[in-house]
Design brief:
The protein has helices spanning about 35-55, 70-75; strands at about 15-20, 60-65, 80-90. By secondary structure, it is α+β, with helices and mostly antiparallel strands. It has one domain (about 10-105): NADH Oxidase, CATH 3.40.109. The longest helix is centred in the middle third of the chain and has 19 residues, at about 35-55.
Length: about 110
């Protein structure tokens, strides 16, 4: 796996480290087999925190964690937990424009 330059993380005013707990994913109530449902829950939490930050005029960057052992060591995360990602939070130097978005008619297909 390639290495990434993460020096910029040292300058981020606030980092939120999102950690999942595979033992408490909620899916065990409905399934007889283990499920990584906590990954989806953590991803939704990251998105929701990013949207909430935007309402406060804060900028965010979702930084996925692939080197789990390094993340556990750096942030003191136990082996039974899964470090999912980091949300970098700060005040942006400039506000970007919203990207072009296709209309719903280009993305949704109705089946009769």
């Amino acid at each position: 796996m390639p290495t990434f330059n993460i020096e910029f993380l040292l300058q981020v005013p606030t980092l939120i480290v999102v950690v999942g707990d595979p033992a408490r994913n909620g899916a065990e109530q409905f399934l007889d087999v283990p499920s990584p449902g906590y990954l989806e829950a953590c991803s939704a939490a990251i998105q929701n925190m990013s949207l909430a930050a935007h309402t406060l005029n804060l900028g965010t960057l979702w930084f996925s964690l692939y080197e789990k052992a390094d993340a556990r060591q750096i942030f003191g995360i136990s082996e039974d937990k899964d470090p999912i990602g980091i949300i970098c939070v700060g005040y942006p130097e400039r506000l970007g424009k919203a990207p072009f978005r296709k209309g719903i008619e280009d993305k949704v297909r109705y089946i009769d």
